Amino acid sequence: MTTELTNILDSFKTVRLEEMDKVRLMDRFDTKFLLPAGRLPDLLKIMESRYKVLEVNGYRISSYNTVYLDTPDFLFFNQHVTDRKGRLKIRFRNYNSTGITFLEIKKKTKNDRTVKWRIENSLSGNTCDESAMEFINSHFHGISGNLRPVLVNNFKRITLISTEVHERVTLDLDLSFAEPGGNFKELLFLAVAELKSDGMAVRSPFSDIVRQFSLFSTGFSKYCVGIAMLHDLPRKNILKPKLLLLNRIENEYNGSLSA
Length: 259
Known about the structure:
Layout: H1 2-9, E1 14-16, E2 27-36, H2 40-47, E3 51-55, E4 62-70, H3 75-81, E5 88-95, E6 100-108, E7 114-120, H4 130-139, E8 148-162, E9 167-178, E10 184-187, E11 190-197, H5 205-212, H6 222-230, H7 240-258
């Protein structure tokens, strides 16, 4: 799959990392779509005329490693599955193509925008260093001392920038989840497409493209799905419809392989 995608991406015009400042979109609307990974080649072929691909150090498909933090009672997980406004995610994300790791805080605002703050920082063992704690407390006072790593997530990402409007699209594949030092789960059948834009997606060229694929937007959190698959928590059943959707996508993916 990666070789086929690389061959298709070779025909795209490119954007350099330093040009990405124009579409950083640290305060934005996010719209997600789920599809079988086997449909990515056809999707990319349609996108080629309207998007450029981010290339970093010669790579057009980049690898990411993320360590999510939460409290012992899984405060952030519970905030998310109950759809609480102002919910948080706190994570350390390593961008393998550059070798840089950021401590990132994401917040969903009352008007459904996603706001992100980050600093360059790495996890020190299983604890946050003083700089990380100060950064977290500057946004959410008093919570940093209770945080611990609860989930490791790896995936590959293709980042595409529209040539028409102020937006970018990420395509994530080869997702895997693990408890720190524990259980492991792969979702190799799944691709997650995410539109990141200043405004609602109605005028997005990507919205036009996904309609051709009969894809519909849906909420999806890598963090929550990974936690639900690896931890037996009281509220994980709230995610049962999402897990059933993943089963249907897996069946479609497996069916396409055997066709």
